[in-house]
Every structure is written in C-alpha cells, then in structure tokens.
Amino acid sequence: MRQSFRLGVFIVLLCGTAFADDAAAPVEAPAPAEAASPEPVAIDALATDSEIELRVAKAEDEYNQARWFWYVGLNQTYPKIGSEKYINDLFEPLTQAIAPKYDEINTIGDLRDWGLLITPLVGVGRRIGNHLTLSVHGGWAGGSVRTIQDERSIFLGANLHNDFYMYRSAYYADFIIDVHPFGHTKLKDYETWRERFRAARPKISLDVVLTHANYKAVVTLGLTRVIPNIRIELDDAWTLIGLRPHAALEIPYNRNNQLVFTAGYNFFTAQEQDFEGPTFSVVWQHFWKRQTFH
To answer: What pLDDT score was predicted for residue 129?
Structure first.
C-alpha cells in the first residue's frame, strides 16, 4: 500500500513538473526581444532621411538660384523719331530749291541709322526660385548733330547760310521681371565656349520703363546781303511710361559671371511716333556669392 502511495505521489510530482515547465515556456518567449528590435526605428529613419533630402534640395536650390548680382551693359535703340520727318520732307526740299547744291541735313535719325544710339546701363537683380528673376537698371544717353552750309542760291548769287543744330538726351530706369521656362543657367567653371553655349538658357522678360527725354533744336537761316540771319530755337521735354517685352539668351561664363543678349521692342503711352522702336542689348552679370553646390 505504501509503495502504491509513493508511486502515485511520484506520478503527480512528475506531471506537475511537466505542466510547470509548459507554463514557464511563455515567459521565455522572444516577444520582448522582438519588441526591442531596431527595425521599426530603421523605418522611421528612412522617412526622416527623405525629409532631410527634400530640405537639402530646397536649400541647395535657394542657394544656387536665388542670388544677388550686379550688371553692366550697352543698350542700342532704333526709335522712330517721327518728328524729324518734317525736316526731311519740308525743310530740306525748300533749302535745296533755293540752293541746289545743298546737302542733306544731319539729324538724330542719322545717328540711329548709323547704329550710334548706344546707351550704357548699370543695374542690380536677384534670382527668385528656379524660374524667376527681378532686377532694376538705369542709364543715360545724349547726342547732338550739327550741319553748317553756305551755298550759292538762285537769288542774285547770294549765299544761303544754314546752321542746323539738334540735341536729344534721355534718362531712364527699367523695372524688370524675367521668366526662365527651362530654369536658370548653371554657374560653374567651364573649360570651353562649346560647353558654355550648351549650358545657355533662354528667358522672356517684361520691363516697365520710366523715361525722361529732352529735345532741343536751333536753326539759323539767312541769305547774305538779302535776308539777315534768322534764329529759331525749339526745345521740349517729356516724362514717359512704357513697356518693353523682350527675349534673351543667358550664357554662363564661370561660377560668378554670365553673358546675356536681349532683343525687344519699346512701347510708350505718349510720343509713340518718336520713341517706340526695337532695342538690343548686351549685358555682363556678376554674381556676388560663390556657388558651391554642383
């Protein structure tokens, strides 16, 4: 009987130990170790890297494209100068009828036709984002022509004396917005002009032009021994507002400079017959901050 009891106790203890081992097994499950795994952290880190890359790209774009620059250049204009039509159509035929050997009178329109209406300009601007530039520049130009002639007239051999003086000048300021459909040029050190031309980018622009122009003409005319010299003096001034749409090509030279060629047309709200016309310019731009992103 005692042996049977002992055997029963042994079986109970053995079963209890087995159940206890099974019950303790979940405690050693790898769940806590799995929870401490760095994999979820790695996923969050990838997302953070992506955000950082976007921020870096934005900062790089702002650093490279939104930059200050100054520039100098030359602007050549071909205004209509319609008011001089009266000189060519009336005054010259009259003087040539009186004195057949009279030559044509030099005018500001002749300077235009000779390509001499060239205005220096200086300005400052800034790249905004990757497709926009704002700038302002100003300039001044003035010129005069004078024709002095003494030719025998048809009146009793008296000489026709003519002294014709003309002067024009203009101060102007342009407020410019440039749109770059293919982005800004890449400023870096180029080795050849072929590389520079391949990196060139076009732009389209609209200028708001504020111009103050002056005009003066002095005519002295007379027949020796018949009619004393008569002096006629005319002068005028205008302040004009206009628009100048134009297209341009920017050619990068190195990491701090580029060359710009433009072609456009001037439109004005007044004195259109004198001041409207095509215009061309060449500009050298210098950027203040050195570019480090490539």
So the answer is: 85
Question: Do 154 and 14 fall within a single domain?
Answer: no
- Residue 135 belongs to what domain range? 66-287
Q: 58 in a domain, yes or no? A: no
| pTM of the shown model | 0.71
What are the tokens at 245?
Answer: 């749409």
Q: What is the CATH classification number for the domain harbouring 140?
A: 2.40.160.20
Identify the bridge partners of residue 79 per DSSP, sorted by sequence position.
Answer: none
Distance CA 222, CA 224 (A): 6
DSSP label at residue 257: E
Bridge partners of 235, per DSSP, are 216
Domain annotation covers residue 125 = yes
H or E, element range at 228: strand 227-252
Question: By C-alpha distance, which of 143, 135, 88, 109 is closest to 277?
Answer: 109
Residues 21, 152: Cα–Cα separation, whole Å: 138
Give 9's pLDDT tier (boundaries 50, 70, 90): very low
Residue 101's SS3 state is: coil
Q: Lowest-confidence range among 62-71, 154-163, 217-226, 231-240?
A: 62-71
Band (73; pLDDT cuts 50, 70, 90): very high
